[in-house]
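Recap from last week: sequence in, structure out.
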Amino acid sequence: MAASPDGATLLRDVIEIPESLSANDFVLKLSDGVSRITATLDSYVVTPQLAQSFDQALGYIRGTLEKGVSDAVFLHGSFGSGKSHFMAVLNAILQHNPDARGLRGLEPVLDKHDGWLAGKKLLCLNYHLMGASTVEEAVLGGYVSQIAQLHPDASLPEVHSTDRLFADADRMRARQGDEIFFRSLVSRAAGGWGTLNTSWDAASYDRARYAPVGDEARGTLVTALVDSYFTSFTRGAEYIPLEEGLEVVSGHARRLGYQGVVLFIDELVLWLASRSNDTTFVNREGPKLSKLVESASSRRPVPLMSFVARQRDIKDFLGANFTGAEKYATGETFRWWEDRFNKIVLADGNLPLIVERRLLSPKPGGREALDSAFAHVTREPKVWNVLLDGLDDSSDQVSFRRTYPFSPALVSTMVALSSLLQRERTGLRTMAELLRRGRDELRVDDLIPVGDVYDVLMSAGMVPLTDDIAQHFTNARTLFEEKLLPRLLDRHRLTADQAEGLPRTHAFVSDARLVKTALLAAIAPNVPALRTLTAQKLAALNHGTIRTRLAGEETGKVLALFRALGQSGVSEIHLSDDPKNPLITIQLAGVDYESVLDRVRNQDTTGERRQLLRRLVFSSLGASAPTDTLGGGYTHSFVWRGSRRTVDLVYGNARNTDELPDSALLAEGDRWKLIIDFPFDEQNFGPNDDLARIENLESRGVRSRTVVWVPAFFTSERENDLGELVCLRYLLASDDRFEQNANHLSPQDRSAARAILTNRKTMFEGKLAQVLQQAYGAAEREEADIDSSRGHLSFYKSLDPQLDLGAPVGAKLADCLTHLLDQMLSAQYPAHPHFPSEVRRGEIATVLEYLEAAAADELGRVPVAAKDRDVLKKVANPLKLGEALENAYLLTSDTFPLRRQFTQFAAQDGLEQSIGVGKLIAWLDQPQARGLDAAVRGLVVAAFALAQDREWYRGEEGPVPRPPVDKIDASYELRLPRLPDESDWKDAIGRAAKVFGVASKDRRSAATVNRLAAAVREQARTLLEPARKLVTLLETHRDDLGLTGHRGPDGTVDRLGLARNAASVVTLLSSEPEAYDLVTSLARAALDAAPETLARSLRTAQVTAFALEQMDWDLLRAVDIRSSYDPAASVIVKRLREIAGYQETQSSLGPALAEARREAQQLLAKLVPVNPKPIVTPPGRTDPGRTDPPIAGTVTVTGDTINDALSTLKALADAHPEGQITITWQLATGEAQT
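Predicted structure tokens:
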């Protein structure tokens, strides 16, 4: 066996690979298959599915014969599925060919059908429609020609229109006689000297009359008869209508002794498809096929059974000349008559077995080599699953092994692509050509890549099926030869001549193969294996041909290739947004999009290039692009060590003093300024000129927190790309602008141009983004992108001598900026804590809560909730503001070292009693600057105040509440607090809890004192008004209630006395501004009862006062008057005064008042007068100017008029002091209620 250069076995030593192929190899014409039936049968493979199809076909024929009705079947299968072979074998079976009947796999089928098939005489005819002008010419003319061969002595059927013309002429000749008939029968022939007439006689007439169709003399005679006698006859009507002709054919076959006619029609759909742009032809010829099925208007003497080979639905071939409405209408027409056909499907699943037997049969000993090679094909899912994406859902390891070294994906691709071509390119033919081309190089373990199909598809002799498909092929070839191939040659530094004959393993060949695979997907986007073509899928379809240093790098290499091609100006290449495995597509438009772009070339100016580049740079930096003019400042916000910071960014030419004067280079205050220079300049200026400007400033003693970022410079090619992008962005900025500049294109081309130019813009943006990474030091330089002759390195240069900067560091430009800003701020604030992420206000508030709790605890230790643990660890621990453990937070001198530092600094400055916050802020930056932001800095100061138990003062105000942490500034000072003594504190917190319900921890501190004072003050102010009102009401009705307000012999006070005491206490506490004084007053206040009793009096003051206001004191006094002689009245008054004398803790006054009123009302209601004596007005009491009130009467009153009634009663009582007044009442609210 021969071996490849690396010692591997060549594939040609394992299977038979021909050195050459003829045009007819693996391509069968139906007539050839029948005439060469022995060879056809020798190579034929009957699969189980094919056996089933033969069973169907014979079943349809049987049904047609038994019913005596014509029928038709579509034999449907892809290109290369064996439709022609199938019909040739079926023909042989119907002719009772013993070799056909002996095919392995057909035994059960023949056994099933022999009962009716035996002895049947069927006329089997084979048809090729390619080249025919009408269906009648193909079918009827084909019948005549085949009958002439099969039955040379039989008369031919009259299926030509001229046959009838001659019959009419014969009858006219018989009537007129030869002399008259031939005298008027003249032929006119055009000559150089005018028109010459040719006469006819009986001999010449008979020769032409019986000549075959197509004979020149026959045609001349037809013309003479039409011109002379039958002027209404249509010259082009060679054949009678198809339906009529089929009836004639049927009768003719019966006369020859046949029981049925079987028509095998090959290439019918190809025939229609080849003229798919001719709407007249398609609409005229297509519907005629329905006539193959039995017609309702005629009865054929013997039935016709038609088998029509078809690879696609006819409507799928309708060309571009059909409008949408026409396509729909024609498609519906086709669907109507196609539905009248039966269907037999030759599945693609037959192909693996057919390929194995006809193309890949191993030589002796070769099967083991193939099995071993197949076993070593990778089973990695991302490759294996793509390779199995083949003919149908049944593609599996078994079918893959049958077609090895072709994958199911490649086989399905070839089948689908073959359907776009005329029949010379079947699947088997294409596969054989692939083997032939690789005969001298393919090893047994080489999997044939999908990309190799392209060259076979584009080889000489390839004829696309339709004009539309031909345009796709032309566009693909043009794109590859004019754009892709030159760039591939440049990429590999090859000339076209050098690339010829390179081995299939060469990197150039591999790259070209990948590109060709993408072109195949563009030509046939619906092929399953080529659909959704990603970089990973491209690598898998060409598995084994991509050389990488490490396994798994194939996808990255594919992606790099297509990105480079797209960014080199091949706008037809499009990559989706997925950064790792994008979809890769190629658009085959054939549109002059360059002419659209040419119209806006005037937009490419230096200014526009700079503006665009600034936007690209700022985008790569992760910063918002400013909208001001070049050289203007822009404040960039970012997070450094968890702290929000800003830096002034300026994008401009550091060399140019007009564009950036010295003042524009200087930073403001402590904020840094970063000058970012352009990666190009005018004339011959380079990076060294930018650096010279900065060095000049340094030599003059200029110092500033300024850094200049000087990049390497673009090559002229990349500068041109930048100009191209300027034009593209301008052109595509709005729909109106694009339409205005593309108005010379058709709407369809306009849409395609827009898509291509949009993709081109995207590609240029991606390319320039990569080149910017190189220019500014984030990526390795490439010679094609960076002009090393003008300075190859990127530099940082600073006007701050304390800042020592290295080269840019980072995988991306944004990373370089982050690293640079870290260097700048680390030099400025070396002691700033490293927070893991930005510190938020809510997190500061959480830490402050724990600080307060820990400061109030004796041990400085508090438990930590699970939800707060990460926040404390994030903020408090890096700041060394206490320590957050897993379950506790500690605030001690050890965990809060800044407290010791501040205390030491304060002692040195003699500031133990009072420390200004400005001092603390300054001490935070010693010995090294921390540079904390305002909120974090305020948190530290607040923590120190809590740890030292200091109070907040501001100017003459104080103490004041602690301000929000971000508002803590030098205007505040912290003082040691004035605290109540321990005994007063304990008494105060006890009374606060008992009297006001204010709880406090035992530990005495400024915070706890202030909190207690504030809470007690608030409660006292709430209780003050009710307490005062209660005292007022009790004072008013002290006599009615029997109160004195004085202290009794036992030292206790009554209800009035306690109310006075309570009111005085809350009056004192509510008006005390100082926490110390309030707490002391609370502890030392004289209480006339236990705190709980005082608290009850205060809490019920409002309710008790309301009850006092609602009491009917006149009623009570009336009862009191009767108490001297009425025991019941005495009991009421005595009980009420007894309860009033108690404290509220003993008995509530409000219910007692309500009870006394109810009892008094009941008592007085019982006093009804019996035979009252007349009331006589005493002498001398009459007032002539006054009208006495009536002594009896009834009035109805409301709430508004009740006082009038009371006044009347009072006047009556005054007028008759010795009398008694009886009062009754009734309440009416809808219904009377008493």
